[in-house]
Amino acid sequence: MKQPRPKALISWSSGKDSAFALHEIRRAGEFDVVGALTTVTETFDRVSIHGVRQEILRAQLDAAGLPPRIVPIPYPCPNAIYEARMGEAVASAVREGITHIIFGDLFLEDIKAYREQKLNGTGITPLFPLWLRPTLPLAHAMIASGMEAYLATVDRKKLSPEFAGRKFDMQLLDDLPNGVDPCGENGEFHTCIVAGPIFSRRIPVACGERVERDGYGYCDLVMTEEKTSS
After folding, report:
1. At what angle do helices 109-119 and 79-95 cross, to 10 degrees?
2. Structure pTM?
3. What is the rounded average pLDDT of the residues 106-110?
């Protein structure tokens, strides 16, 4: 009899890197991805760091066919609270027979080492399907795959706040200042994915209010009604 595939969760940020990591894992077919693990900041009811509305998050996961596993955290969030709540989520996953968590990290060694350290001995093995792929060709591959994403958050020390809300496309890559990673891996920007090969349908969104807070520029992406032809 055919052996069942190991169960995995995707660490879902709502952005392009986690989405493309999921795409690569699904293409390889070695793991059964049974859910998406996402931290949501309780104060704002939005995806942590990215600032994406939970309504959009849930629409993403519905289109990707992934049950959500929401980990609520406060704002600001002390590291001890973050680690405790993530630890509870990991322990729950282990009890359900999940053996792997997929991350979209690209090249930051300290982040990878932190994840490996925290999962060591838990029964969960981390997977990094995009690790050390050159980021400019990777950005091109994401766009070529049909992935559509928008910049939801930008670090104002590295990018003008006017970049918030822009589409992640070839024109954006051309317009990024020197020294800014094409995938934003150094925290220059964070994205929200609305279409791509992992989705059964496009998530209709529009750019709403732009705000600046704590050194970051945010574009409030809001869901809109899908237009249909008569």
Report:
1. 60
2. 0.95
3. 98
Position 230 scores a pLDDT of 33
Residue given tokens 């980990």 in the structure block: 71
Structure tokens at 154: 């930008």
The rounded distance, in Å, linking the Cα atoms of 168 and 221 is: 14
Rounded to whole angstroms, the Cα distance separating 90 from 123 reads 9
CA within 13 Å, CB half, 151: 29
What's the confidence (pLDDT) of residue 60?
98
Q: Where are the alpha helices (DSSP H) in 103-229?
A: 109-119, 135-144, 170-175
Secondary structure class of 147 (helix, strand, coil): coil
Cα R_g (the chain), whole angstroms: 17
Residue 219: C-alpha distances to residues 52, 175, 179, 206 (Å): 9, 18, 23, 10
Cα 164 to chain centroid, rounded: 16
Average pLDDT over residues 194-221: 96
Q: Which CATH superfamily is domain 7-223 in?
A: HUPs (3.40.50.620)
pLDDT of residue 1: 67
Structure tokens at 19: 């989405």
Burial class (CB in 10 A: 0-12, 13-18, 19+), 204: middle
Q: Classify 228 as helix, strand or coil.
A: coil
Q: What is the DSSP letter of 187?
A: S
Annotate 1-53 with DSSP letters as a single string. -PPPPPEEEEE--SSHHHHHHHHHHHHHT-SEEEEEEEEEETTTTEETTT--B
Please, which residues bridge with residue 167 across strands?
Answer: 150
Closest CA to 123 of 230, 39, 9: 9
pLDDT recorded at residue 226: 62
How far is the C-alpha of 192 from the C-alpha of 148, rounded, in Å?
9
